UniProtKB/TrEMBL annotation:
Presence of keyword Flavoprotein: no
Domain IclR-ED, first and last residues per copy: 84-267
Pfam family, one: HTH_IclR
Annotated source species: Cupriavidus phytorum
Keywords annotated in UniProt: DNA-binding, Transcription, Transcription regulation
Region span, Disordered: 1-22
A GO biological-process term: negative regulation of DNA-templated transcription
Alphabetical list of InterPro entries matching this protein: GAF-like_dom_sf, HTH_MetabolicPath_Reg, Tscrpt_reg_IclR_C, Tscrpt_reg_IclR_N, WH-like_DNA-bd_sf, WH_DNA-bd_sf
Protein name: IclR family transcriptional regulator
PANTHER family: HELIX-TURN-HELIX TRANSCRIPTIONAL REGULATOR, ICLR FAMILY (PTHR30136), TRANSCRIPTIONAL REGULATORY PROTEIN (PTHR30136:SF33)
Length: 267
């Protein structure tokens, strides 16, 4: 299934590594099927999203209900995420030294330059916002809900992440993205991704404009003990991307360096 979120490629465990637990992997795939805009799902919808059989999904959702990870809604014969999921999300955020260091500096830069500032990490073939501050004309900030997903292939955040992958991992992800974007002008999209990756390697950041009159610039950041985080700044403007780059690339790179220095200092 093209829209399956289950990774069906089997990786043989190396020496000293335990064999992956398939039941656990499938249970996690069921939980991943839930997201903003599709917070209530039936077994059929979960099966379609995960690529699992309906009988397998039925067994998994029953177990997840019994453990509290899902709640069953009799009236709609569907499920929603349970309270323990929220508890785990808060635990994840609370344990992140990167978020603790980055958040106040992101707010400061957003207000100073009257721009949007976001922080995201990769999850499968999408990027997930950890934090995002949106500057508006009333000189105040609004926060995009943490956990919001955006496309990896189309965005500066996603392309900056792709630039950090090993050649083997990059090729594997490009195959996934090609399949997902089949019929959507993949040839041109691939060219844009490769140009963005080259830009990150050359300048430390890349530029993208995938929404009308919105230009974003993103830079990857590495931290010991954490996945690669990607920082971006964006602005709604009729200006060409090159003009925005000339103005905002320096503040982005300065902020990225400051966040990395603070995390290293407080580690």
């Amino acid at each position: 299934m093209a829209n399956s979120i289950v990774n069906t490629e089997r990786i043989k465990p190396g020496k000293g590594k335990a064999t992956p637990n398939r039941s656990l992997e499938r249970g996690i795939a069921v939980l991943r099927a839930f997201r903003a805009g599709s917070s209530v799902l039936g077994n059929g919808e979960i099966a379609e999203r995960t690529g699992l059989s309906r009988s397998t999904v039925s067994r998994l959702t029953q177990s997840l209900v019994e453990t509290g990870m899902l709640e069953y809604i009799p009236a709609s014969r569907a499920y929603r995420l349970g309270v323990p999921v929220l508890c785990m999300a808060h635990a994840m955020r609370d344990s992140s030294q990167v978020l603790k260091a980055a958040t106040p500096m992101m707010v400061e830069v957003a207000m100073q330059h009257r721009i949007n500032v976001g922080l995201a990490v990769a999850e499968a073939d999408e990027m997930v916002y950890l934090e995002s501050f949106r500057y508006n004309r009333r000189q105040s900030l609004r926060t995009v809900v943490s956990g919001q997903r955006i496309p990896m292939a189309l965005t500066s955040l996603g392309r900056a992440h792709l630039a950090t992958l090993s050649p083997e991992a990059f090729s594997a992800m490009m195959r996934i993205l090609a399949d997902k974007n089949r019929g959507r002008g993949w040839g041109e999209l691939r060219r844009q991704i490769e140009a963005a990756v080259a830009s990150v390697h050359d300048k430390g950041y890349c530029v993208a404009s995938w929404q009308p009159q919105v230009v974003a610039i993103a830079a990857p950041m590495r931290f010991d003990g954490y996945a690669v985080h990607v920082l971006n700044v964006s602005i709604a403007t009729p200006q060409e991307p090159a003009a925005v780059e000339a103005t905002l690339a320096a503040p982005l790179m300065k902020l990225a360096a400051a966040i990395q220095a603070r995390v290293a200092r407080e580690a």
